[in-house]
Amino acid sequence: MATEAANDAIAERNETDGVVKVDVLLKATGDVPIMKKKKWLIDANKTVLSVITFIKQYLKLDANEPLFLYVSQSFCPSPDHRIRNLYDCFAVDGRLIFYYSKTPAWG
Amino acid sequence: MAEDQQVLRMVWEARVPICFSLSPREISTMHQPDPYYLMLPRISYLPLVIDKVIKHFSNFVTEYKKQGTDLWIDFEGKPLKWHYPIGVLWDLFTNETTIPWNLTLHFENFPEDELIRFNNRALIESMFMSTIKEADALKHRSQVINAMLERDHNQLWMGLQNDKFDQFWSVNRKLMEHTNDELFRHIPFRVYEQNKSFIQRLIKPVLESGELATVKDLMNLIYPYSQDDTQSVTFVIHGIKLPLDAPLQWLSENMSYPDNFLHICAFAKSNS
Asked: Where is the Autophagy protein ATG5 UblA domain (chain B) (predicted)?
């Protein structure tokens, strides 16, 4: 419960001009380049697909190359999932952690 | 759960009547194709059940399109999402329209901005299994799904794909079980509104007061600004209007879709 309350507080604090931004941590797993910057503040209204596209661009990967994104080290969220949904359900200590990989990593 | 076996069966066996037509612009033959009528399972996904429809209409389009790599379906101009269960699409769009539901099949002009391509079964399988895993992350911190064998995972998918209730439920039972003093940690649910992306939040099956959380509590969570006025929204699942006092734990165990989520459509009640 404490974690959920903390998440709410952070989501509110980062609200400017009606855009809610949340803390996201992007971690590499398996044989994939590591991002220099891992912590990002992401618009909660964005989709999982837009995060995948962003990582590919940042790492200069081919747009057609597969990139898997995992939550809780257990599942790949649907590409049209909103970050807000995942943040509300799976953030730990006010931060949503994504693992990205070029090959299936879990499950 | 055993006493509600009948509910599980009714959810599994529910069908909706659909009439498919080919987009008139794509007909390349002199002869006009007949519409194709089907009763489709609410709990399934369009790409799993329309092979016959595609075959029927592929005779009327130009050769290079026949493979169906750009296939998509719309209802009154709105592209339908492959990865939503058929029952969710139906509940969202057919609110009080006439039956059968008239859908249009397209072999070209794929709406890239609105749809994700879902032209092979492996993709649907991985999406389906991922959603089950997400549900178990909410219910049991992924412990049940992770303890299962690859064979069990396959059985869930094959059970759905081949419309085999017993095959599916002999495994799914483990994902839906709870002991009396230990309910699910959270209830996996998604709320859909027309033309919007779905909403997913955390909700526990038990309130802080110790009482079971109900549909009304879920409504208050999703629509906090209408707290005094929950009657202004209606929640529908499997075509059924949900009673406000239905406990979420029971709903989750008995009325979830095979992907282990309660997919609920929300409608604003008219004031009349």
From this structure: 11-107
pLDDT per residue as tens digits for the range B136-158:
999 999 999 999 999 999 999 99
Give the closest of B129, B131, B202 to A88, CB-based.
B202
Inside any domain, residue A80: yes
Question: Taking 80 as the threshold, does the pLDDT of residue B59 lie above it?
Answer: yes
* Domain limits for position A91: 19-101
Query: With pLDDT > 90 as the criterion, what percentage of chain B qualifies?
Result: 69
CATH of the domain at A81: 3.10.20.90
CB A46 within 8 A of CB A82: yes
CA distance A23 to A10: 8
Which residues of chain A have a CB within 8 Å of the CB of B133? 74-75, 107
Pairing of strands B262-268, B189-192: parallel
B130 at A interface, C-beta within 8 A: yes
- ipTM of the complex as predicted: 0.89
Q: How many domains does chain A have?
A: 1
pLDDT of residue A19: 77
Distances (CA, A) of B67 to B52, B55, B119: 13, 10, 10
- Assess if residue A47 is contained within a domain: yes
CB A76 to CB B197 under 8 A? no
B76 φ/ψ angles, rounded to the nearest 5 degrees:
45, 45
pLDDT surpasses 80 at A102 = yes
Does residue A45 fall inside a structural domain? yes
